[in-house]
Amino acid sequence: MAGLIGIGLSGILSHQSALNTTGNNITNANTPGYSRQEVLFETQEGQRTGAGTVGSGVSISDIRRLADEYLVQQVREDSTLFSEQETLNSELTRLDNLLGGESTGLSNALNNFFAALQNAAEDPTSLPQRQLVLSEAQQIVNRFQALNQEFIQQRESVKTQMEQGVKDANTLLKSIAELNLAISESPGIAQGQMPNELLDKRDEKLRQLSELVNIKVTEGEGSQVNVSLTNGLSLVVGSNAAQLGTEESAEDPTRLSFTLSNGGRTLNIDEQITGGKLGGLRRFDNEALKPAFDELGRIAIALSAAMNHQHEIGMDLEGDLGGLFFTDINSLEAQRSRVVANANNQSPQTGQLAVEITDSSALAAGTYTLQFSGDGRSYELIDKATGETVNQGRLPDPVQSEISMPGFNIRVEGGTFNPGDKYLIQPTRNAAESIGLEVDREEDLAFASPIRAEAGDENIGTGAIDQGTMLNVRNPFTNSVLPEFSQQGQLSPPLEIRFRDDAGTLVYDVYDASSGAILEAGDAAAVPPVNTFTPGVSNKLFPEDPSDPDYRGFQFEVNGEPAPGDSFVIGYNSNGVSDNRNAEFLAALGTANTMNNGSQSFAEGYAGLVEDVGVKTRQSQLDMDAGKTLLEQSTNQRESVSGVNLDEEAGKLIQYQAAYNASAQVMSVAQDLFNTLLQSFR
After folding, report:
1. Contact (Cβ atoms closer than 8 angstroms) between residue 642 and residue 67
2. In the chain, which residues have pLDDT < 50?
3. How far is 234 from 29, CA to CA, in rounded Å?
4. Are 572 and 489 in contact (CB under 8 A)?
5. What is the 3-state secondary structure (H, E, C) of 445-479?
6. Tell me, what's the pLDDT at 51?
7. How far apart are the first and last CA of the chain?
8. What's the pLDDT score for residue 2?
């Protein structure tokens, strides 16, 4: 009887455990990371008799956790990919909406400004029209600064998310290390009885960590796991967890760098943070936000340089030369702000550098690293976008010199440079922030040209002179005012062009119109000939090369056929308030190709920025959709193995309940037999 009771009892106990396990599966059907469990039954060792072996019931050999490590790892990898793309797409979408919005972008402000200039050119004496130009110019300044401020806010948002992501990662790393310890100390693990709930919790923590950064998981001793970055730097070893952190970047103080602290050592691991949310934030900052800063700054510099130059060579309502329209792009403060010394440079850190914009049309939007080596005088300029060396050489002794690049020069002003010293060169990064309007009054707008020409009253030839073209009022090499414009409100000196016959060749002499002194005599016999005139075509009177000693900063052309004795007088455009020549040139800058080596206008430059961000946003959307599909597929594959099927579990409940009842019936039969036996002895 005892054997029968034992058999029935083993069935009851075993199927009770099976019912408990099935019930646990059902109640955890919606628990994240839960892996379905199943009971493995095993026949107990039978009792041997002369007639054979008599069974002794059933026992549970294991409660198995249904998990496929390959599928679990695949979910982690796809979670890393999707989280990176989702974060990147979210930030890019925000940037795209900002740049492309009608009210937030720059396009409307540019169009309105140049439209106002065009209207003002039609009535250059109108103060209301001039006021509108100033108002629209201020709107451009406001748009540049507002966009730059939005970029800064998004940069700070990225930094905040990085800091929070690091905190979340550290919490997960600590939890994984603690779970490693708990699993290794779990009773029965030496006999293969795994703590299923702890394993599920650890896998879920690992999955959550993979959403933050790309990790590598390897099996360790005692069913522990070791976690590392993809390059092998350890994050968790057994029950010990490293500490992730952030710090101000030594290269660029406006950015954050990632660090890893372990065993008293702290390493910079910025380049090793890939994938996941943190990797997505780094990608956005490097691939979209920094280039957007640089490109917006390039447009601001190009606009300021072109407008400033054209405005300087004009004349205002009061007869004075026009000054700066926008902020000087080459002020000493602006030049030095384009260089950032690396915080890790060796003492005494006295090296002084500045960046001067030499040609805004050739200027590219980019950032560079100037690195010194050898004895501190050998240098290498590296493009940060490509990693390529774009310039290298050696500083003279003393070090004062210039390193020339397309569109800008790096000026070495002095100090000491040590081997390994680095400097971040940002020619355009801060330009959108520093742009400002320099013209305060409507009368100061230089819409007229300061030069004009008149034909002599006694001319008899058919020669005609144009009204001249301004080239510059400053020497491009020294930035000093040319002698011709050194006196306010006059041309110094005014010029008279007189034509004469020189051995059968028509030549012209240049005179000081105020004193009558000859300044430059024509000579047909000279090699090369000087001031000869070719009838029937347009003839330029003056050199246009700034290095020519006779360069005057303006040009006049004469066509037709002047007669010997004919003359033309060139002077200052006094009282030329109705002159709109410079206003037309200013308005024409709106469509002129003044960027990208003369292939792009301001509007096209900004449209290129919007398009570039838009393409990246669209590509990130496609990548995110693909990553989401992959994650859904791998999650479904894992669920097919580890997930709880409620219909299946309901069937098992009925199956185990029936077996439980049957086992109870076995015990009931054994009890009846025992009672019958007892009654036979009464």
Report:
1. yes
2. 1
3. 34
4. yes
5. CCCECCEEEEECCCCCCCCEECCCEECCCECCCCC
6. 73
7. 19
8. 53
